[in-house]
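Ticket #4471: complex job returned nothing on first submit. Input attached below:
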Amino acid sequence: MASRSNLMRALRTPVIGANASRSAAAGRALATSRRTTQPSTSAPSSTSTPAGSRSFSSSSRRLVAPTPARRTKLTTETYPNLQRDPRFAVVTEDHVARFREILGDSPSAIVDGVSGAVDEGDLEPFNEDWMHKYKGQTRLVLKPASTDEVSRILRYCNDQRLAVVPQGGNTGLVGGSIPVFDEIVISIARMNQIRSFDDVSGSLVVDAGCILEAVDQYLAKQGYIFPLDLGAKGSCHVGGNVSTNAGGLRLLRYGSLHGSVLGVEAVLPDGTVMNDLCTLRKNNTGYDLKQLFIGAEGTLGVITKLAIHCPQRSPAVNVALFGLESYDKAQLAFREAKKQLSEILSAFELMDGRSQQIVSEVKGQDKPLEGDHPFYCLIETSGSNGEHDYAKLEAFLEDVMTREVIADGVVAQDETQIRTLWGWREGITECLGHWGGTYKYDVSIPLKEMYKLVEDTKARMEEAGLLGDTPEHPVVAVLGYGHMGDSNLHLNIPVRRYDPQVEQALEPFVYEWIQKRNGSISAEHGLGIAKKNFVGYSRDDTMLGLMKQIKNLYDPNGIMNPYKYL
Amino acid sequence: MASRSNLMRALRTPVIGANASRSAAAGRALATSRRTTQPSTSAPSSTSTPAGSRSFSSSSRRLVAPTPARRTKLTTETYPNLQRDPRFAVVTEDHVARFREILGDSPSAIVDGVSGAVDEGDLEPFNEDWMHKYKGQTRLVLKPASTDEVSRILRYCNDQRLAVVPQGGNTGLVGGSIPVFDEIVISIARMNQIRSFDDVSGSLVVDAGCILEAVDQYLAKQGYIFPLDLGAKGSCHVGGNVSTNAGGLRLLRYGSLHGSVLGVEAVLPDGTVMNDLCTLRKNNTGYDLKQLFIGAEGTLGVITKLAIHCPQRSPAVNVALFGLESYDKAQLAFREAKKQLSEILSAFELMDGRSQQIVSEVKGQDKPLEGDHPFYCLIETSGSNGEHDYAKLEAFLEDVMTREVIADGVVAQDETQIRTLWGWREGITECLGHWGGTYKYDVSIPLKEMYKLVEDTKARMEEAGLLGDTPEHPVVAVLGYGHMGDSNLHLNIPVRRYDPQVEQALEPFVYEWIQKRNGSISAEHGLGIAKKNFVGYSRDDTMLGLMKQIKNLYDPNGIMNPYKYL
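Support reply: We reran it on our side without changes. The output follows.
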């Protein structure tokens, strides 16, 4: 039982910042430095563990053993059943000549592998994703500088039946922005201007190709914040964020992009410019068409500009970590945090004991709390008054400790400690790769049953004799962590080696399990090519039919980002 | 200049509750009692001023002089250019027989004026709106009790080309839920069950016919709140709220329904049940089709159930009212309130001096602040800790007074005073009708220019010689108030009598003015029949074409709520 004196010790004991790799980021802004799970360049980060090059995403099909000189498999090799759609024309030099008329001759506007003007290496950054999981075969990249150029490109492509893939920062996790065959890449990178900001209402208008971090830094100077935060913020484009309906850590506080995006300018496949770039919070003048483009992953058109409502930036940030003895108590803690921290709660993250044990073992660091706890929660508050926020947090922790909802807790005393505590949540992904690879599932499940997926999956692995501490067992552990505030679980299965038995035990088991609970097989990463074949686990045939009806309405020739999504 | 001592006096001086009519509501819950601008029954409220029966909505076309025994004009008389669409069948007794097969014989399920089973009076509540502005000619009302019944009704209507009007609580302001000719009314009133509530995540699933206040009262017992609040909450249905994309006072804090609605179950015109009733905050599995139904005003199908994310209820509520010397200062105060009150700010309302003068004159009450101010703002905070919130509010008021952003201010000390201060905002609508009628426009305008619409309209009335204090001038005043936090202005022109000159001076002037600023001619009330012909001022032809494309996709026979919306 946690005593009052024990609590106060825990509350006041500074956490010693033992995470050397994070302290290097100490001089950077808080929001930027503490969320870096995803490399900001297309190459994986180099780390002291071999895990860096073995990061895998939600779909398990591309899980391969690491090789010294790793070659990314073509997506068509990974998915041998995919056939190039014969409706689409093959890009010719005549086509390229027309694109040069539209865009000009500058190499900044066209990367031309069709006429042989560039070699394969110049096309690679557009053909491959940052995880080296997906690889396409485009021979042409177009980089329009204006909405009008996008419109003229698409109209011509539609007329000529040339398939295209819109591409932003190329930081996606499901292969959505990578061509499969020889689709033309339309990169939005040159469309990167901040168009307007109303510093009273918080309405921001930006080009789709703006980098999220650049926009957020611009807003920081005005005392505002972008209502979305991602590990990939240094590379991802805001247009891509909207096309993917990205979630991230701020969703608990600022809600989904369906609520915060005020307007969208998009170019439809036939070149039509849809000007729905409203900057107003209230506008009831007809169907809210822009919503279709939020999360459409470039299959209906190309988002070229967006307007978004930005909240004021909170000057005070607090972070606490606590240990709990059961998932039921974690739910109770979440409910109490919502009640008592209410308007200042900005993150509520769940990590199970196994995930924290692995981080501790792999990094060789002592955990911030004494002893082992079956569950840990990390909470962040963001508010306008540091004293008030700290008082609320302290009262909350005292209450939940006195009532034995939590077993122990610690509050960060400064920014270094904030980063250290976040490290126990953010370090998981990296550490899980320690043994060879990880099967990862990004799913939403109603909160009451969320963690049961981990328990049931673990039991299944044990029954199949796949889970154990010795080398003959492929599975190292079955664990879970994620955004508890959003019912968003990351089910992770670190393995010693690729093994078809593990995959067979996992799928369709996991998807069926989620289907039975009305969960979502894709919480925040989108469908892309990775989950195209699994949507039926979260949507019935009627919904799928209605979605395909929309696709056919906007893109009757199917040129927009083919082979993906639905 | 405001001195520090003056401020503290103002801050600490209790407001004497002089509003007798509001004190009657003292025993009711705060949220319920202080927002009652719209009567909760279909009949206008009886008040001591003649204004009660002279309340007019956004469109000026139906402004008529009050008569002792008032008869509501048929909508077809008001809009003589409207013609019944000859594609639609006329309801026969055979049709009614089929509907009886679906719904049973109970009078609670069918109000049958076709077979002569009921008289005109029984149909009137479904044919007329609560403002007595719109009047249809339906002879048949169907009240399904389940989604399946709605589906069977619509499939049959679609096959038979019978036009229908979905109807909720019938509290709309633009005639959207009232038939125009003989369309069949489908009332959702019997579908009124709360289906589920997850008291950890806050996900609520309810039938579309639930009354907003009933749902909110249910949530209050769980410590939660519905993320929408309206004057009509005692009558309106949540399905109607979503169909209208209602805004209200909580939008500043909880965002739009596009963000908070998690899922929708809707029946399409051909009877297809679209099950998009997700209860998860994150779900990236295809196009977000439910968004099309939010704000579609029943033109694409009938919403039968919805899932919505409900926030925790705030135990502490504070209200302050202050006077300002210019609109620029009101903007500055808004910016500072957002910054300093940040996460606890739940309302920021603007009222100009003229509106407050009229309330004072009509009600015969002294204003809560000494002297006259060109502008007044009412702010409300809602938080989890009353002491913290009051301290923030006090510090904010001290800061803005010291810097002369505001000229004077007062903070309510108890619930009675909270209601009294809100009365100065909410009493405007009623008091404006004192002289005969009011031209009302509910619009959104980028905040910097928002109030200029009032100034320019006033100048126009003065130039035309229409505005003055003597009886020969039709216009009493031109004034503005509204939800400053949402850039939502209510431009109001109280008049002594209906005068075509006033209307000619107002339209299309007001709409063109808004169009030039990329504003919205309909902020939160929808289009219905009132604004159908004016959408072009806020949407270009391309957008209108794309919207009509969606309408044709879902409702190729046009049976859903015809003659309205687009």
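Residues 5 and 11 of chain A are 10 Å apart (CA to CA). Closing as resolved unless it happens again.
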